[in-house]
Specification:
The strands form 2 sheets. A 4-stranded mixed β-sheet has the order 2-1-3-4, covered by helices on one side. About 50% of the residues lie in helices and about 10% in strands. The protein folds into 2 domains: about 130 residues, no CATH class; about 80 residues, Arc Repressor Mutant, subunit A (Orthogonal Bundle). It has about 240 residues and is of the alpha+beta class. Helix 5 packs across helix 6.
Length: about 240
């Protein structure tokens, strides 16, 4: 059965891909974060992703001057008002994206400096209260928006993670940081030679002050697409 599975896994799952495919679309960040020589971080919008919209004031004046009837004048005025409203709305949208991104960077300063192990638990509500905006506005602004950092390009939603309690009563831990730690422990199995069960991972995490249940470890492991300890042990023997 193992030989049959290996043979099937060696086949091409997309045989048509060799005859034609679309070019991969790279992620274009909406925000850039750079280290500030004076200390801290610089947060800037990517001007290439912002819609560029201007109202031609000279053409508006020309049309207004040629309007004869009251109906024509009202029509031109309404169009100008709508155009001005759209320009202001796009500018406000850009300012909101920058404001939300700056607050996320402030909250996740340790992550930018030291890595994913230092990612803090963060919610939309915390950011919304800090910048005095509605939670739904923050949710809408961070959807499908990407930020380029010294640690890589991430979706803004990446920085919002659930909190896992500390077993010693200390600071809570980010779920994403715990997932990263689980992956690191399993990746180290090739060096240590020990295949870690979910129960053993729970023990190690609790020794470091992370209060986590076995089912949560199993859920995170499956989300990372990591086989169970039994399957990993079987794969090692087969190898």
């Amino acid at each position: 059965l193992t030989d049959m599975i290996s043979e099937i896994q060696g086949l091409t799952p997309r045989p048509g891909a060799g005859f034609g495919s679309e070019p991969a679309q790279t992620v274009i960040p909406d925000v850039f974060v750079r280290s500030d020589p004076a200390g801290g971080w610089k947060v800037e919008l990517n001007s290439d992703t912002l819609p560029r919209l201007l109202m031609d004031k000279r053409y508006h004046a020309e049309i207004s001057a040629s309007a004869r009837s009251d109906g024509d004048k009202v029509f031109v005025a309404d169009c100008a008002a709508q155009a001005s409203w759209l320009v202001k709305s796009l500018d406000q949208r850009a300012r909101t994206i920058l404001k939300v991104s700056s607050e996320i960077v402030r909250q996740q300063d340790a992550f930018l400096a030291f890595g994913v192990e230092f990612l803090r638990p963060l919610t939309l509500k915390v950011v919304a209260e800090a910048i005095e905006m509605h939670e739904s506005t923050v949710s809408r602004v961070t959807s499908n928006k990407y930020i380029a950092t010294p640690r890589g390009v991430f979706e803004l939603k990446f920085f919002f993670t659930a909190a896992i309690q500390s077993s010693d009563g200390g600071a809570t831990h980010s779920a994403e940081a715990v997932r990263h730690r689980i992956r690191s422990m399993i990746d180290a199995e090739d060096v240590t030679g020990e295949v870690l069960s979910d129960d053993r991972i729970v023990e190690i995490l609790q020794e470091t002050g992370i209060d986590i249940a076995r089912r949560t470890v199993a859920k995170y492991r499956e989300a990372l697409r990591i086989p169970s300890s039994v399957e990993r042990r079987r794969m090692r023997k087969a190898a």
